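Problem 12. The chain below contains 281 residues. Write out its predicted structure in token notation.
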Amino acid sequence: MREVAIIGAGELGGAAAHLLARRDLARTVTLIDDSGRVAAGKALDIAQAAPLEAFSTGLAGTTDLSRASGASVVVVADRFGARGEWQGEEALMLLNRLTQFARHAVIVCAGAAHRELIDAGVRELKIPRTRLFGTAPEALAAAARALIALAVDGSPQDVAVSILGVPPAQAVIAWEDATIAGRALTRALGDAVRRRLATRILALWPPGPYALASAAVRAIEIMEGRSRRSATCFAGPDTTAGLRTRAAALPVRLGPAGIVEFVVPSLNVVERVALDSAMSL
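Solution.
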């Protein structure tokens, strides 16, 4: 991947830049934040770790949003200081400017509060839903895998489970389709245990900045072809055929140009009704 631009040099943005550099996922990572020389300072700090951590990624920091123009992936993160994640009209204006500077870039919204931004970006700015998505649900799905593994005395790597809908209030955990080491999870965990786990899992929303950064970088890793796993992402509304839906978490398959396929796992009747309710306007 040639270049990744990260909009916002807050905790999330800085952590994402460091992870991308450590994994050598991009030739250049550019941090962009309008708070003075904060982005340049963080980029320099990360770059100074290169000899110790043995990465070759170039890092730069700037206040100039037009520097995102050469990026193949743009990560919308959080601003430095108390302003936090981009939200509301200000976030939509940012997204509109990004579509002018980086017309063909995949836009990854990394924040937990970015679901509505994705919805508006697809609905109002007409950005293709394959090119604009959010990665925060992947952080929640990773936490779910860890908690489930603890419950069955297994490894998170062996757990496959999908979280759909709008967390936390309208999230749907697809227990019917979940597996542990290829075996149906419903055989290993009874109803009462699954209900307790669901309560614990959804209480972890919103994830913290480092978990959110890891989720965004994992998605970029998949796009680069370094992993064959699917990812759980906020996908924009399906505006085709007159459907009235809203952005929601769905498992997706990713490629260099963004979302390749939307994957809805097998759901029982209760899960299906809950998902339809979560996605309906």
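Discussion. The CA atoms of residues 137 and 233 lie 5 Å apart. Students who got a different answer should revisit the alignment rule from Section 12.3.
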